[in-house]
Specification:
This is RepC protein. The chain is built from 2 helices and no strands. The chain is mainly α. The chain has one domain. The protein starts with 6 loop residues before the first helix and ends with a helix.
């Protein structure tokens, strides 16, 4: 919570993926969506890691300026 980024767009992608799963899905229905969800998960993790690394870098820069 409080992480920077376009989380509304990411949520919209997630909602679109979930909406494509039928009520009684076959394995093929789920497999395709699962692949896309895994890509979305990787993108989210990359964004959070980049933000964390940026914050750590900023903290280190501030300490060196003292």
């Amino acid at each position: 919570e409080g992480a920077e980024g376009d989380w509304v767009a990411i949520e919209a992608i997630y909602v679109e993926l979930v909406a494509r799963i039928p009520r009684s899905p076959a394995m093929g229905d789920v497999a395709g969506v699962l692949d896309e969800m895994e890509l979305l998960r990787e993108e989210i993790i990359n964004r959070l890691d980049n933000q964390e690394n940026s914050q750590i870098s900023s903290t280190n820069d501030a300490q060196f300026e003292r």
